[in-house]
């Protein structure tokens, strides 16, 4: 049996999957690490804790490989986008990894949007202006931590740091670079204007390479621990969003991938870069002739967790005592409420929001509450609000790439039949749930097989996955959702003028009281 390993470096864990060359999972490891949130808006990780998790993950799955009767052909990486680590002359970290979820650069992202420079940069980089991006983070560090900023010799992301630790070379794939806000998607190089705005030079950034680039010669100590031949090819791979599309076979024109995990996204593949004149969606590189256009949202399953923990704590305890899944219990409760939650609307912006409003100050709200509404209405409205928000991303995407021909849905939410049906009903389209657990890791492994010449085309991924469920929209729900979605959208726009005010109040008063 021959093997390929896909490594998915996520926000809270690294998932390492051993596949055979038919795309079947032969080994799996999920290694967690903490997200540090010491002060308001912070979201950081320790790069060495992540590196250790990757070593542990590869070591674990290598024990599952029968290398006496087979060959490990390679390892391919996926990584979360937008991370930033400052390194010194010796490539030692001066900071933790500042993740996409860190909002401390919000002031500088707002300034870029307001002065028009942000629009200029978006039209060249395909990366919306937001505090998530290394571009915004660099401006923030330069202005608010100048001593630290000036100590830095290199500015990298987590994947680049891992590659350097393993191989002693500093390089960055086009896909990860694309998401920094510093990369020009039309000339495939660092953008001079973006670098000037960030206050750095190109010699402070890694060498750029394609997502199919291969590296060999792993340091012997690490190879020995993992149990891997040091000459095993490592493929740079891409960022997690584009690889998630690949991993669920959403790479043909018009095939949309909708993902809801902790966060969420709506994405479609095109054969060339496409920009939204209104700046609502991203455009990220996957591989030659494959660009992923879409929008990420901050608020997916994390909203459901908040509802469970804050509004349904007794039910959560009951579920634990009965040894049943607390989320299943909540969806049973929500299913008893009619579509549209009897006119209760929830804006799920508990952690700011990215697409389509790109406002880190956005805050959540229930609208339409009356005495007739119960907690059951609130949980259903929360689930619907997450899907309403994804639908608004889809509407923006349609203006750029056209109406979707089909929808492939993945993520933790896909375990819920109610949520899957909501997606079909609100989008008014069939929703297919591919049978591909850990689709991002599978996408990485598939890209690795393509890079190594083991498959002729990325479309071979269709042979690696099956179809578990297809949900058809229920026309009986259309009147409710067609009436409520426009209200949801209008409210989002009207509330946006106040989001900054309430966010500033919370930063000034609420977080201070929490510290006491």
From TrEMBL:
Show the stretches that span the lipid bilayer.
Answer: none
InterPro entries annotated for this entry? ATPase_NBD, Carb_kinase_FGGY, Carb_kinase_FGGY_CS, FGGY_C, FGGY_Carb_Kinase, FGGY_N, Gluconate_kinase
Origin: domain of life = Bacteria
Q: List the molecular function annotations (GO) for this entry.
A: gluconokinase activity
Name a single GO biological process: D-gluconate metabolic process
Domain (Carbohydrate kinase FGGY N-terminal) spans 3-247
Q: List, for all copies, the residue spans of the domain called Carbohydrate kinase FGGY C-terminal.
A: 257-452
Q: Which UniProt keywords apply?
A: Kinase, Transferase
Family assignment?
Answer: Belongs to the FGGY kinase family.
State what protein this is by name.
Answer: Gluconokinase
């Amino acid at each position: 049996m021959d093997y390929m390993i896909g490594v998915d470096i996520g926000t809270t864990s690294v998932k390492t999957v051993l596949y055979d060359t038919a795309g079947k999972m032969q080994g799996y490891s999920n290694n967690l690490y903490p997200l540090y949130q010491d002060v308001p808006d912070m979201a950081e990780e320790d790069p060495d804790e992540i590196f250790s998790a990757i070593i542990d993950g590869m070591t674990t799955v290598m024990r599952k490989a029968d290398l006496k009767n087979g060959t490990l052909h390679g390892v391919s990486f996926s990584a979360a986008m937008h991370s930033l680590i400052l390194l010194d002359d010796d490539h030692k970290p001066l900071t933790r990894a500042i993740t996409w979820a860190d909002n401390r650069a919000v002031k500088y992202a707002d300034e870029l949007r307001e002065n028009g420079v942000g629009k200029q940069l978006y039209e060249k980089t395909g990366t919306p202006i937001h505090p998530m991006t290394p571009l915004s983070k660099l401006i923030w560090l330069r202005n608010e931590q100048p001593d630290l900023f000036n100590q830095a010799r290199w500015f990298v992301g987590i994947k680049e740091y891992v590659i350097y630790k393993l191989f002693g070379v500093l390089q960055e794939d086009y896909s990860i670079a694309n998401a920094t806000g510093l990369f020009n998607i039309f000339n495939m190089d660092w953008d001079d204007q973006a670098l000037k705005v960030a206050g750095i030079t190109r010699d402070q950034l890694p060498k750029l390479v394609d997502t199919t680039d291969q590296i060999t010669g792993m340091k012997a100590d690490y190879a020995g621990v993992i149990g891997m031949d040091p000459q095993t090819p490592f493929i740079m791979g891409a960022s997690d969003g584009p690889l998630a599309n690949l991993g669920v076979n959403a790479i043909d024109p018009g095939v949309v991938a909708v993902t809801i995990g902790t966060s969420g996204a709506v994405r479609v593949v095109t054969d060339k870069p496409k920009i939204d004149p209104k700046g609502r969606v991203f455009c990220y590189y996957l591989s030659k002739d494959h660009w992923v256009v879409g929008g990420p949202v901050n608020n997916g399953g994390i909203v459901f967790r908040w509802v469970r923990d804050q509004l349904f704590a007794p039910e959560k305890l009951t579920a634990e005592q009965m040894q049943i899944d607390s989320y299943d219990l909540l969806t049973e409760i929500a299913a008893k409420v009619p579509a549209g939650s009897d006119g209760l609307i929830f804006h799920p912006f508990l952690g700011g929001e990215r697409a389509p409003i790109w406002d880190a100050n956005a805050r959540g709200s229930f609208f339409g509450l009356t005495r007739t509404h119960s907690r059951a209405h609130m949980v259903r409205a929360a689930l619907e609000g997450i899907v309403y928000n994804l639908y608004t991303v889809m509407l923006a995407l349609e203006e750029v790439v056209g109406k979707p021909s089909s929808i492939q849905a993945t993520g933790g939410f896909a375990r819920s039949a109610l949520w899957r049906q909501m997606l079909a009903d609100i989008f008014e389209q069939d929703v297919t749930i591919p049978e591909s657990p850990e689709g991002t890791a599978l996408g990485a492994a598939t890209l690795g097989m393509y890079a190594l010449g083991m498959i002729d085309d990325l479309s071979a991924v269709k042979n690696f996955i099956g179809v578990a469920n297809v949900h058809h929209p229920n026309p009986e729900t259309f009147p409710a959702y067609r009436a409520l979605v426009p209200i949801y959208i209008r409210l989002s726009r009207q509330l946006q003028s106040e989001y900054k005010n309430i966010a500033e109040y919370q930063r000034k008063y609420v977080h201070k009281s929490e510290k006491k």
